[in-house]
Each structure stands twice: as C-alpha cells, then as structure tokens.
Amino acid sequence: MGKKVTSIELPRHARAAIDALERSGFEAWCVGGFVRDALMGRNGGDIDIATSAPWQEAKLAFEAAGFRVHETGTKHGTITAIIGEEPIEATTYRVDGPYTDGRHPDSVTFVQSIAADLDRRDFTMNAIAYHPVRGLLDPHDGRADIDAGIIRAVGNPERRFSEDALRIMRACRFASQLGFSIEDDTMRGMEYCTPLLASVAKERITKELQGFVCGSAIHDALMACNRILAFFMPEITAMQGFDQKTPYHQYDVLEHTAYVMQNTPPYPLVRWAALFHDMGKPQAFFTDDEGVGHFYGHAKLSIELAKPVLKELAFPPSFSSDVLLLVRYHDDVIEPTPKAVKRMLRRLDGRIDLFRAMCDLKRGDSLAQAPKCRKRVAVADELDRILDQIIEAQEAFSLRDLAIGGTDLIELGVAQGPEIGQLLDRALEAVIDERVENDRDHLLAFVRKQWR
Ligand code: ATP
Ligand code: MG
Whole-model pTM? Predict the structure, then answer.
C-alpha cells in the first residue's frame, strides 16, 4: 500500500482550473479518484473538478482564462477544459436521479454545496474533496478508510447499490486494483443487490470486470467477491470449497484459480483464460479406488462453461476464441523439445502471442499447485526459450511458413474447398515431424501421395 500523505500536490493545470472558476466568483474543488490516489501516494489519473458554477458559467470562466472548452456532458453538468495539453473535467455540484443504463443518471439535480455533491458519490474513499488553500474536505472519513484499505459505501449500502448497481462492480474492481477489502455491510449490500446487475449495460459491466480480472490483488478480490461473480458465471459456486482430493493440489478449485490469476501477468487474455481454465473440474470430477480425484476432460467442460459467459459479456469474438484456445490446451503436456513446441504452435494457428500466453498460464498454474509441482515453472521457461530459438532459426510452424500454398494444390488438380486446407495441414504436420523437408518439390510429392 502507498505511503501516508499529508498534503496533496495538485498539478499546475488543476490549480489553474480551480483559480479560473474562483476568480469568477464560484467555488471549486478537486474530487474523486485523483484525490484518493494522491492520498495513497500514487500519482496520475484524470483530474475531476467539482464546482458551484453552472456549466455555462464554468465555460465562460475557463474561456476568460484562455482555455479551450468542450461540452462533453452538459446534460449532467460536465464540460472539459483543455489547459496546456491536459484535459480537466469540471462538473457542477449535483445529486443524481436513477441510473437505468448504469452509466449516466437519467436525470440530475444541481445543488448548492460540495457537501451534498460528496454525499452522492459511491465510496468514502471517492468522496473526498481537496482545495489547495482550504485543504481536505472529508465528511465521510474517507481518509481513514484509505489508510485502512477499506471500501465502504457512502450512506446506506443497499440504497446506494439499488440506485446504481454498477457500483457493485466498481467496488469489485477497486478491491482488485487497490488491494482493499470491502467492509461487511457494504459487501452485504452488494450481494443483496447483485440481481439488479441484470439491468446494467453489458459494456459497462465488461469494462469493470476487465479491470477486476487484471487487478494486482486479484486473488483476494476474487475470494471476496466470488458470490457476485457467480451472477455472471454460476459455476463459481461449485468451484468454491471443491476439494480436489489429489496430491497435486492444496487448494480448492476456486482458490487455486485465484492463485493462478495472481501468478500470471496482468493482461486480459491470460487472466480470463486463468479464470476459466479449471471451471469444468467440479463437473469432471471422480475418485478412483484409492479415493484420489481425477478430472479427465475438464478442459473441454471448462470451454463449454466459458463460452456463454464470454458471449453474454459481449467480448469481440476474436478475443473469446483466443481465451477458449488457451483453456482448451492449458493442461496438455508440451515436452520441452522443438518438435513439441512446433506441434502446439500449429494447434494455436501459428500464433506466437498465444503460445507465450500459454507459457504464462502454465507458469501461473504450476505456482498455484502443491509445492512439489512448482518446479514445472522451469519447464514453461524452457518452452519460451525453445520458441525463441524456433523464431530465430525461422523454422516452419504455421501454414504461412510452408513452401507450398493453396494455388499449388489447385494446379495439381485438387478441387477448391476444405480438402485444400486439410492437405496443407497434413503437409505442415509432416514438416514439423521432420518426415518431409520444407521445400516445394518434396512437399508436392508428399501431397500427391496423400491425395491419391
Ligand atoms: P479511476 O481511478 O478508475 O478513474 P475514479 O474514482 O476516478 O477511479 P471515475 O469513474 O473517474 O472513478 O469517477 C470519478 C468520481 O465520480 C469517483 O471517484 C466517484 O466519486 C464518482 N463516481 C463515479 N461513478 C460513480 C457512480 N456510479 N456512483 C457514484 N459515484 C460515482
Ligand atoms: Mg477517474
């Protein structure tokens, strides 16, 4: 967690925005994520200003100071000033009506005081205002919660989450990104209101989930928020507490999954694949005569469970199919030999990025198993090195690398259609297995034999 900070250094353009508004007779504060992050000793992030000025007046004040202004959300009282090159959002003090799209309140009411504006904000850590002269305004004790690493709803949690269910997903995302825990009443309110997420825009939910999945504290956040996640992926409930009864594992399926995610780099492809990789285990489970658990075919079941989730969340189809490819092959043993690496590459459509992600997933998976399995991390490292060598030596591992193509086969007399692809694929397989050399004559001879 960041160090304690006693005063906030506002960037020059933020001070200039506040000055411009106050010179015109209004009040202005810096609010939201910037203040929260600064109090945690973190810099950066967008700067939001809350002001008593109606947006038309704020616009005049900014223009008088020589700043360009964009009318980015005037319905909700928001304009954006460009100061130097930096955009700053200024929003009139307001309280919100209901949200039906989970993004914009259907209506807003402008109010006179910053205190009322802070009251409508989601969490205490986000309901702090800062002014370079007046200092911190922190009516909900957000500062103490930040120092303690706690996410707490402003006001009555149930009421706040039923006003806007997206806040539930924001809490999950903040928990994962900041490493904060969620206060008990707040969590109860989140769980109680979870069904309301059905009416929130998918894109909005997906964006929050993406931040959640890629957070630096994903293990703790997944363990804390699993009952909310189960709304989108019901199998989570079966994963929790599911004893694997095998010497390879020391955690239940959910906690294993949480550790795999934690032990992979924070990019969406590998993190989503990690989330789904063992989802099929509860359904695939059986015990042998010795009482040891097995999960044959679980990867296939995981795919079937992941598909509708990815579809429902409106991911681009190419992203979903990449995730599913990783899930499908995550448990395949890849011997650390060039031949085996090239075979896997062929299955991954020759995609180097997918192979690298597979290595990341395998590393994360090994680290989350029983200690005796962790030496498999070295195998994944070795696979990465072998791939480097294959690329360096420009060896063939995808159809693109093959010395013949579809037109060669058509010239041979093969009819256009799926057979062309099948023959080329067999040719590639033969090259990878070193049964045929990757040159035109040898390959054409090989294809002729296969085809007849
Ligand atoms: P980030 O670091 O992700 O930008 P943030 O807290 O700045 O975090 P924003 O979405 O930029 O998040 O919102 C700015 C501020 O507006 C928040 O700090 C919070 O005070 C308020 N806010 C945003 N969304 C909501 C919401 N759905 N309900 C209540 N308040 C909200
Ligand atoms: Mg922000």
Answer: 0.92
